[in-house]
Every structure is written in structure tokens, then in C-alpha cells.
Amino acid sequence: PSAGPGRHDAGVGIAHTGDEGAKGISAFMVPADSQGVVYGKAEEKMGWNSQPTREVAFNGVRIPARYRLGQEGEGFRFAMQALDGGRINIATCSVGTAQQALDDALAHVQQRQQFGHPISEFQSVQFRLADMATELAAARLLVRQAAAKLDSGSPDKSAWCAMAKRFATDVGYRVCDEALQLFGGYGYIREYPLERYLRDTRVHRILEGTNEVMRLIIARRLLGDPGLSLE
Fold it and tell me: Is 231 noted as a catalytic residue in this protein?
């Protein structure tokens, strides 16, 4: 937090406690005010300015063994499980922001007049709105399908979460960009929220694994045995 850690704040850290490699990694609850936990400056970012971002460093931090989460050697598995859910979370953030951008654009084009008519009457504007709504609907359905795969423990859940994250974050950013375009110059002014939507959704294509990494996950599952189920 921007004001510094409170006495009830805690984080999760992973560390090698055994053999080299993934099987030697364990997870721990780390109280935020532990001696040796060092917090860097609050980073100045392009977007997501309502959420503080800081570097956290461990400098000789010691915690009791009872703070271990799960069994020894389960830390890497916990981290991988968190990634799938995190990708659904980021995809959902993109869908929600894009929906708000579309709603704002719909209201604006019906109010904005050009040549004596609302710009919503122009076919080029209608086509743009139709494409935005269609892509957003597809993204929402893919996210819901991936969430169902995750909840059911499907063997393909990681690939589905990667597909949802890749598609929804690309679509979310594109819909926000199109909405800003429909606002014209107003969309570039901070008095209107469109420029913030665009800045905030841009990082979604990086968080929880870049969209290039998502493509690798999907492709490796497709090429593996038994391959990715698309049902």
C-alpha cells in the first residue's frame, strides 16, 4: 500500500527449501512488516494509477517454519494455480472496461451532431459499433467458458485460460481505442474517461504473462498429447 504496510498486512513469498528445480520450492506467508522486507518507491505508471506498484526486496528476512503454506515443495504448484485464476481476472477486467467504453460511445454518438444529424446515423459509425459489440460478446463468452473449465478442473484449463486472457485483453484494448476514436478529440482529453480506459487496458496485454507467452501455452497444448479440446 502507498502509506506503507500495516500490522495486519502480509504477502506470499516462494523460496528454495530443498532440491534445485520446481520440486524444491515452498510457499510462505510473510508479514509485511517483517525485519528485512524493503519496499521501493511507488512507481509512476502509464495507467492503473489507483493501484500502487512497488518493488519488494527481501534482505535477510527470517520467518518461522509454521508460516509455510501447504507442504514443503508445493510452492511452484501453488504459483501455477494462481496464474490461471489471475489470467481470468485480467481478462474480466478487460471485458468490463471495454463494456463501459462501448456504453459511453453509444451515448456519445447519439448526442453528437454533424451536418445536422447525430453521428449514430452514419453507416461508418454503425459498422464500427457493430464490430465492437460483436468482438466484446465473443470475448465475454470465451472468458466464461475458460472460467467453467477452471472451476471443473479440466485438463485443458490452462490453455483455455490463456486463450481467454489473450483474446479478451486484445479485444478490450481495441474496443477502448475504437470508442476513443468515436469521441474524436474529446476522447483525448482527460475530462472524458476514454483516455484512462485506454491507458488502463494497455497493461492487461502484459500482466499475468504477456500475450506472446499465452500463444506459446496454447500452441504447446495443441501440439501435445492428447491435444486441446475445443468443446
Answer: no
Question: Who contacts 107 (Cβ-Cβ below 8 Å, separation ≥6)?
Answer: none
118-147 pLDDT, tens per residue?
999 999 999 999 999 999 999 999 999 999
Polymer length of the chain: 231
Q: How much is the pTM?
A: 0.85
* Cα–Cα distance, 28 to 58 (Å, whole number): 13
Measure CA of the first residue to CA of the last residue in the chain; give whole Å: 42
Name which of 102, 99, 1, 100 is nearest 50 in CA terms.
1
Options 121, 178, 208, 231, the catalytic residue: 208
Residue 231 has which C-alpha cell? Answer: 468443446
Give φ, ψ of 64 to 5 degrees. Answer: -70, 155
